[in-house]
Design brief:
Pfam families: COLFI. Keywords: Collagen, Secreted. It is found in: Secreted. Residues 1-249 form the Fibrillar collagen NC1 domain. It is a single chain. It is built from 2 helices and 16 strands. The strands form 4 sheets. Strands 1, 2, 3, 4, 9, 10, 13, 14 and 16 form a 9-stranded antiparallel beta sheet that branches. A 3-stranded antiparallel beta sheet has the order 12-11-15, with no helix packed on it. The chain folds into 2 domains: 16-79 and 122-249, Jelly Rolls (Sandwich); 84-120, no CATH class. It is elongated and about 55 Å long. By secondary structure, the protein is mainly beta.
């Protein structure tokens, strides 16, 4: 179970780095704003990486399955994608009754048409170890107490580039990310290091994957909130992705 590594005064540590030693990797309670303990929350503490405090993405963003995304425009933000009944496994479809007008081909007044409304996507969200949303104030204090942050993003691709396009020797099809401060991050924004740990998608052939790592000493840029994929829309092209945890280090 989660460890309650409290100080002698009974308060939870503000970040993993301040957990009393000896400490082992696992789930711990922390309280970044050091207010009342009721808003403390559980996180994963990675002591093998120097005491990182890690938050995980909401389950719906942890793994988005491979799809063609035929109705979407390449290069647009994932948060604007519309997810209907075809991809119902990713989100419920809402039913609404829209009032109909009397007339030819329409039901009588007072009877409604039944419409299936696609559930819009949203920006990436993050949760604690219990699956609850992390309060904004706690995330703000976590950033204030940290000197750097990092996060991985994996694009699963089919006949598509994710970062480098080896055939055309260009980064024109590279992923773009949106940071927590709404700043755009990518190949054209060298201020925040975005690098490929593995770039299997660069050949644009078959099913592969590209693993990106975003690191920054400007912690307000993380966690990532959105992604724009450029290379899809042609026959037999697909993509899906896996959003990794965001880890803060004091």
């Amino acid at each position: 179970g989660p460890r309650r590594a409290q100080s002698p005064q009974g308060a939870d540590p503000s970040v993993c780095l301040l957990t009393p030693l000896p400490a082992f990797p696992g789930e711990y309670w922390i309280d970044p704003n050091q207010g009342c303990s009721r808003d403390a929350f559980r996180v994963f503490c990675n002591f093998t990486a120097g005491g990182e405090t890690c938050l995980f993405p909401d389950k719906k963003f942890e793994a988005v399955r491979l799809a063609a995304w035929n109705r979407e425009k390449p290069g647009t933000w994932y948060s604007t994608f519309k997810r209907g009944k075809k991809v119902g496994a990713w989100g419920q479809t809402l039913l609404t009754l829209r009032p109909g007008a009397a007339g030819k081909g329409r039901p009588a007044r007072g009877v409604g048409w039944l419409h299936l409304l696609p559930v819009p996507s949203s920006q990436f969200s993050y949760v604690d170890a219990d699956g609850n949303g992390v309060p904004v104030t706690q995330l703000t204090f976590l950033r204030l107490l940290s000197a750097s942050a990092r996060q991985n993003f994996t694009l699963n691709c089919q006949n598509a580039a994710a970062w480098y396009d080896a055939g055309a020797s260009t980064f024109a099809r590279a992923l773009r990310f949106r940071g927590a401060n709404d700043e755009e991050l990518g190949h054209g924004h060298p201020a925040t290091p975005v690098r490929a740990l593995r770039d299997g998608c660069q050949g644009r052939r078959g099913q592969e994957r590209t693993v990106m790592e975003v690191t920054s000493s400007r912690v307000e840029r993380l966690p990532l909130t959105d992604v724009a994929v450029a290379d899809f829309g042609d026959a037999n092209q697909k993509f899906g992705f896996e959003l990794g945890p965001v880890c803060f280090l004091g």
